[in-house]
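Justification of resources, computational component.

The compute hours requested in this renewal are based largely on the per-chain cost of generating structure records like the one below. Each record pairs the submitted sequence with a full structure-token output. That output is archived, and it is also reused by downstream analysis tasks.
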Amino acid sequence: MSEVPASVSRGGEASGASRPVPGWLDPLLVRLGTARTEDFTQLRTPDQGGRESAVLVLLGEDAGTGPDVLVLQRAATLRNHAGQPAFPGGAADPEDADAAATALREANEEVGLDPTSVTVLAQLPRLWIPVSDFVVTPVLAWWHAPHPVDSREPAEVAHVARLPIAELVDPDNRVRVRHSSGWVGPAFSVRGMLVWGFTAGVLAALLDMGGWSRPWPRSRVIDLPPVGASPAPSAGTDEDDESALR
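The structure output for this chain reads:
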């Protein structure tokens, strides 16, 4: 198992990418070549219905803290997923060419991300979120030219942060959360943010696939704070199913 901080190797290039990406991404990119929906969730994505959407899983690197991922916190007043940390993203528009176009457009609208600063690496399997009936395509990308980002719409986005991978895989920062409905899923407590739900499920799967995860006490369960929380199931309610998206 490899760890991710600044000690990782660099200098690789993803197949088909127009710009070089760091070598620490290679194991993840190789594994994603055979990724299936079942690697992320036990819920079957419906053949029809559900609103098509996409999120941007944007990996970058900081000289001081190493590899990181861009996460925003949604405003507490939103109808869906209020107050919940999330990847930038949203529903597809008719003019969007594909899921990557949707993810990049939404990231630009939400946090001012320059699409030209991003190298798209892969589209993950389409995943269903029953609570909002979105069918979401996570788009993995490398932030080859990081720049300052912040909320463009305070009514929608309350906070934006780059969360270091080294802190996400720190066993002290990993917990499982219990919703009032009885649902239990993975979460990360990092830099004042409790990342749970769909976003935590995708992150947990990617950390495992990249070989970056470290053993952590899965018996550590906390109650989910009620502020902005919504019934979370995006992959059933089996609290022992660690592969499911929450």
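Confidence is low (pLDDT under 50) at residues 1-17, 228-246. The chain has four helices and twelve strands.
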